[in-house]
Design brief:
By secondary structure, this protein is mainly α. Helix content is about 55%, strand content about 0%. It has two helices and no strands. It has helices at about 10-30, 35. It is rod-shaped and about 50 Å long.
């Protein structure tokens, strides 16, 4: 059994969400700047 989380960073759900956010940042970094700043 795992020991209790001491900080939010110890939580598995936070770790997975953080990896997801980093992947989104990498993906959106490949977009042309005009797409990210346009109003739709």
């Amino acid at each position: 059994m795992r020991e209790p989380a001491k900080t939010f960073e110890d939580l598995l759900v936070w770790q997975k969400a953080h990896l997801f956010v980093l992947a989104v940042y990498r993906l959106s970094g490949a977009f042309p700047r005009g797409i990210l700043n346009s109003d739709y």
